[in-house]
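User: What would this chain look like folded?
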Amino acid sequence: MIGIGTATIGRPHYINIKTKVSDEPFNKENFILKGKSMLTEAYNQGIRHFDTAPGYGIAESILLEWISEFQPKDITISTKWGYTYVANFDRNAKVHEIKEHSLGKLNEQWEVSKQLLPYLNIYQIHSATLDSGVLDNKEVLERLSQLKQEHNLKIGLSTSGDNQNEIIEKALSIKVDNNALFDSFQVTFNVFDQSLLKMTSLLKQENKAIIVKEALANGRVFPNINYNHYQNTYELLESLSNKYDTSIDAVALRFCLDAINPFMVLSGASEKEHLASNLLAKNFQLTSEEIQQIKTLAIKPSSYWKERKQLPWV
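Assistant: Here's the prediction, encoded as structure tokens.
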């Protein structure tokens, strides 16, 4: 299944490899209208799951407005808590988001996010790390368990960094009142960072939902002269896109679907033509041999995340 992430719908700048940046002044009203138009397009193209977060600028409020106006009956939503957007739509802001995994931040952001009920079905810690201490915070874990019971939610987390498997392992061990707390894991997986493959069997065995983010590696799956070290990757993806008469991004998304059969792969498209291109992934399947070929393209997670940290907000 393909869902849509709303990071680029709720804030105009995101970590990416884009080099062409618009000089037009930001117009919030037009931005909101475009965002709602994208949500409608996604729905009309068959997407029924929408992933959002307070850290995605005004994505939650755009989604709420769209629901009120469009009145969809058959959608589900996942959102997160733990990041606050502070860039105020300024690409040159020194700080774009602030991370805080406290009980106070959880309660504060829940007061807004709960408006997404009854569509909201997955509530996640945004970018849980070992350093933040959130997975050892008894008050936070108990509050999440309480929300899980009160609102029939799945509790999840998203991960970032080269130790995401370690974070997943720790989260799988967490119980509140002798019940496993986490049901869903939103993880980075793509043709470059394939470290999740070591965890998929365990996650499936324990009946956990896997949601794939960054399937296009922040745009790095597309041929780029600044990334000549990925020439073998570019050549294989292009060859497969020609074979299936599809797009490179569709091949990259299809790999995620076929390699681990996740609950969902998220498209991060902010333009209708990009979404249409992403959704071509539904039209074909890769062979076992092709999946194995792409698996040989994996790089070290440490290299992947070191490179990602150098990407600008554009």
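The longest strand covers residues 76-81. If you want, I can go into more detail on any region.
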